[in-house]
From TrEMBL:
This is Protein SWT21. Coiled coil: none annotated. Involved in mRNA splicing. Helps to stabilize the U1 snRNP-5' splice site interaction. The keyword Secreted does not apply. PANTHER family: TELOMERASE CAJAL BODY PROTEIN 1. Belongs to the SWT21 family. Keywords: mRNA processing, mRNA splicing. Gene3D superfamilies: YVTN repeat-like/Quinoprotein amine dehydrogenase (2.130.10.10). It comes from Wickerhamomyces ciferrii (strain ATCC 14091 / BCRC 22168 / CBS 111 / JCM 3599 / NBRC 0793 / NRRL Y-1031 F-60-10) (Yeast).
Length: 385
């Protein structure tokens, strides 16, 4: 396997938060000047929010990326970072064909406080004129916000959702969320699992979470499972719920310190469960009531959220590691213990997120770095077998 870097934020995210924003602004200004002669007008990049209600940026920290989302057509991707920023990048064919290009956001907005979790709306695309994201922040309602500016260069809030503790009326912190389809989504908080209609501010239904903080939610698409979703918690419990929030099956993952991601295998027979502080990925058999049947070994994770993705055409699972390796488990779908093939990046920087482009399956989106490392990066890499 070979890996080739196509593009990255190498000139912007390699430093403290305020420094990275300043570098990004300078590169964007240069891009605007270079293209002004062609008559193309780039949207202005948003600035950090400074108000009485905003939380100041921790400018002594590095700008860690927290999530990477491809739009369904693969032409655009959206990242969330610890500077409270949401950035939209366009992946042109030129960028994919070149080596080591500099990534500069096309759009950038900031929220007033840290973003706890997010989920991209299904079928979002800049080219269709509809691109929005569910955004969770502390002490405010959950919001569905457009990521495309209107004529006043504002990013409208499409809908707000009330997730409150009825006894205290305090807004619940949403730690995980997932769209069931374009009309419904589910959320997991410290105390509740809730189901929402995107058009209504109140939950359709809510149930107490008896497993603690809900840290991962994934739709069930397998033919071996009824319509529903999987919920994982920081206590290590994994539960399969119907779409009506009825618990159907539950198991306890013994490995690690809290579930960070649940992935259905391409053949629909297994779940891959990724946890913090873990040495392997648990493999559960959906057909056997979520029984653990195998381990994918060779993983190195610390107290950090690690996420992976499925490779196309049943080529297995790919995941990053804290020692800067990409791990490919080609035989993951066999439901047997297996070791990975390694692709080592030269810099040995921790890889917290790997996401496969839905239309260019050889192109990977990576988030690299952690809070102790100044060399943060969002990058695009091309993987060939």
């Amino acid at each position: 396997m070979n890996l080739r870097k196509l593009a990255s934020t190498k000139e912007t995210f390699n430093g403290l938060i305020n420094d990275s924003i300043d570098k990004e602004n300078a590169l964007h200004a240069s891009l605007v000047r270079e293209n002004s002669q062609n008559g193309y007008v780039y949207p202005a990049l948003g600035s950090p929010i400074k108000s009485r209600d905003s939380q100041p940026l921790k400018d002594h920290l590095y700008n860690v990326g927290t999530s990477f989302n491809w739009c369904d057509n693969g032409s655009t991707f959206i990242t969330v970072s610890e500077d409270h920023g949401i950035r939209t990048y366009i992946t042109s064919q030129t960028l994919i064909d070149d080596d080591n290009s500099q990534l500069i956001p096309y759009l950038r907005i900031f929220k007033s406080t840290p973003i706890i979790s997010s989920a991209l709306y299904p079928d979002s695309s800049l080219y269709s004129g509809s691109c929005s994201m569910l955004i969770s922040q502390k002490d405010v309602p959950l919001r569905l916000q457009s990521l495309i500016p209107n004529e006043d260069n504002e990013y409208p809030i499409i809908q707000s959702y009330q997730i409150q503790d009825r006894q205290t009326e305090i807004f619940q912190k949403v730690n995980s969320m997932s769209f069931l389809d374009g009309a419904r989504f589910i959320t997991g908080s410290n105390k509740f699992i809730s189901s929402f209609d995107t058009q209504r501010s109140e939950a359709i239904a809510s149930i107490p979470s008896k497993s603690g903080i809900v840290s991962a939610l994934t739709n069930a698409k397998s033919e071996f499972a009824n319509d529903g979703f999987y919920s994982g918690s920081f206590s290590g419990k994994l539960t399969f719920y119907s779409n009506d929030l009825e618990p159907i099956e539950q198991t306890k993952v013994q490995n690690g310190n809290g579930i960070t991601q649940i992935i259905e295998s391409s053949n629909g027979k297994y779940l891959y469960v990724i946890s913090r502080n873990s040495s392997h990925v648990e493999v559960l058999d959906i057909r056997m009531g979520l029984k653990q049947v195998a381990k994918l070994t060779g993983l190195v994770t610390l107290n950090q959220r690690i996420t992976g993705d499925l490779l196309p055409q049943s080529q297995g699972l790919i995941i990053g590691s804290n020692d800067g390796k990409l791990l490919v488990y080609k035989d993951a779908e066999l439901g047997m213990d297996c070791e990975p093939e390694f692709v080592t990046l030269n810099d040995c920087i921790p890889i917290s997120s790997v996401v496969v482009n839905p239309s260019e399956s050889q192109v990977l989106g990576l988030i690299k770095g952690d809070r102790s490392d100044e060399y943060q990066q969002v990058s695009l890499q091309k993987l060939t077998f």
